[in-house]
């Protein structure tokens, strides 16, 4: 069948040009000549990312490709210390370095992991033998990413709600990270559910910041991972979580559109639609899968290449099981890849084993490898309790 074309008015509006109909086709068909011509004619928006266009699309596609997903090891110093405190692991830079060395030197990790998200402290750290972590990551075939927000702070006039900060000076920081070899970035907003919250003020302000961050990333040639997280804490039902998640995502995509973010060159990282942790009714794995994908279908444009879920405090096996159910039920029909960008759901079992002791490194690495593989299997809809056993 012949390709479908549409006519676009360009420049002063008097000239028309034929371009392929779907945006995916449009993007695929951009060779430099056409791109230049369209730019000259004023067809493309001013912020159309010129030479970054293909680079952004390629990076986003590679991050989403096959059965692999992202590993988040970007806990801030205080969050990492909090996790260490539970085990009595010393809360020092050297122990954080040792923990991250354990992770990045796990052999075979790249079989399941396409991209690793680092924290600023970590990206400057090295293995004991002096090799920078970022070199180890790149050499193992994993794309390095970086968390660039500076945290969620109490929001003025909005008790119980937070606004994520970090836009000031972001352009310069992105340029520096890009020089180091980083190819994608992450910014997380948190939306709490409770009495009278979330408010429009909180949703709007966070969505706006996410979109401004995403535009700056694309300008710098880095794929933005856009992360609005509706938190699990609370007594809310799964339906209420679905309503709030859809509202947040619609607002985020409105703002991404306003800020001229190219959807083909970004990744959405978000929560699954779940009942609150203290909600008396806890739905089945299949119900969660259905509610999550239904919500996403209503709010996430098809041009986005991948949705990578955060685990948000679910147990490692629940996170895998729910992702698995989504892929069994929707993989063939969903317009985007249904993938993962887990932190705790990949790291936690390994941290339980490591406990800060050199002697436990090798077994902890096996646990980390295993959890990463469970989630690769979940992307294929092939995860089951049998593979929970470390071989
Ligand atoms: P969790 O999977 O532990 O929620 O972490 C994901 C993450 O990167 C949060 O920003």
Task: Label this structure with key terms.
about 400 residues, alpha/beta, TIM Barrel, eight-stranded parallel β-barrel, two-stranded antiparallel ribbon, 14 helices, 12 strands, binds 1,3-dihydroxyacetonephosphate
What does this 3D model show about the protein?
The chain has 391 residues and is of the alpha/beta class. The protein has a single domain, classed as TIM Barrel, CATH 3.20.20.70. Helix content is 44%, strand content 16%. The chain has 14 helices and twelve strands. The protein has helices at residues 23-29, 32-40, 52-64, 77-85, 93-104, 120-123, 133-139, 170-180, 200-219, 238-258, 285-299, 316-330, 344-354, 361-379, and strands at 5-10, 15-20, 69-73, 113-118, 143-147, 152-154, 162-164, 184-191, 223-230, 267-270, 306-309, 337-342. Strands 3-4-5-8-9-10-11-12 form an eight-stranded parallel beta barrel, surrounded by seven helices. A two-stranded antiparallel sheet has the order 1-2. Strand 8 (184-191), helix 9 and strand 9 form a beta-alpha-beta unit. The N and C termini lie far apart (50 Å).
Mean pLDDT score, rounded? 91
Query: Number of helix segments?
Result: 14
Counting DSSP E segments of at least 2 residues, the number of strands comes to 12
Note the run of SSEs as H and E: EEHHHEHHEHHEEEHEHEHEHEHEHH
Give me the CATH superfamily. Aldolase class I
**Strand numbers in spatial order across the main sheet:** 3-4-5-8-9-10-11-12
Question: What would you say the CATH architecture is?
Answer: Alpha-Beta Barrel
């Amino acid at each position: 069948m012949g390709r479908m074309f549409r006519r676009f008015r360009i420049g002063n509006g008097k000239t028309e040009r034929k371009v392929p109909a779907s945006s995916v086709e449009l993007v695929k068909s951009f060779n430099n000549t056409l791109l230049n011509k369209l730019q000259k004619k004023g067809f493309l928006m001013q912020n159309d990312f010129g030479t970054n266009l293909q680079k952004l699309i390629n990076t986003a596609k590679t991050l989403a490709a096959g059965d692999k997903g992202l590993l988040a090891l970007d806990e801030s110093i205080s969050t990492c210390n909090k996790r260490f405190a539970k085990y009595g692991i010393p809360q020092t830079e050297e122990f954080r370095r040792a923990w991250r060395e354990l992770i990045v030197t796990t052999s075979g990790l790249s079989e399941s992991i396409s991209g690793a998200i680092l924290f600023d402290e970590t990206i400057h750290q090295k293995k004991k033998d002096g090799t920078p972590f970022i070199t180890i990551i790149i050499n193992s075939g994993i794309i390095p990413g970086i968390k660039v927000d500076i945290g969620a702070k109490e929001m003025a006039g909005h008790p119980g709600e937070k606004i994520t900060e970090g836009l000031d000076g972001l352009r310069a920081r992105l340029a520096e990270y890009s020089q180091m070899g980083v190819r994608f970035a992450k910014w997380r907003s948190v939306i709490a559910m409770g009495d009278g919250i979330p408010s429009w003020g909180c949703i709007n302000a966070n969505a706006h910041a996410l979109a401004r961050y995403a535009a700056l990333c694309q300008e710098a040639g880095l794929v933005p991972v856009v992360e609005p997280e509706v938190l699990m804490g609370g007594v809310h039902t799964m339906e209420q979580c679905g309503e709030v998640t859809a509202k947040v995502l619609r607002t985020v995509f409105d703002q991404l559109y306003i800020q001229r973010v190219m959807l083909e060159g970004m990744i959405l990282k978000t929560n699954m639609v779940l009942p609150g942790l203290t909600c008396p009714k806890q739905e089945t794995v299949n119900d969660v899968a259905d509610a999550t994908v239904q919500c996403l279908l209503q709010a996430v444009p098809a041009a986005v290449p991948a949705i990578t879920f955060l685990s948000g405090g679910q147990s490692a096996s629940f996170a895998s099981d729910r992702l698995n159910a989504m892929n069994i039920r929707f993989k063939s029909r969903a317009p985007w890849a249904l993938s993962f960008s887990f932190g705790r759901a990949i790291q936690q079992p390994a941290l339980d084993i490591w406990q800060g002791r050199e002697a436990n490194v090798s077994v902890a690495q096996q646990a980390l490898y295993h959890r990463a593989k469970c989630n690769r299997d979940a992307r294929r809809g092939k995860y089951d309790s049998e593979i929970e056993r470390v071989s």
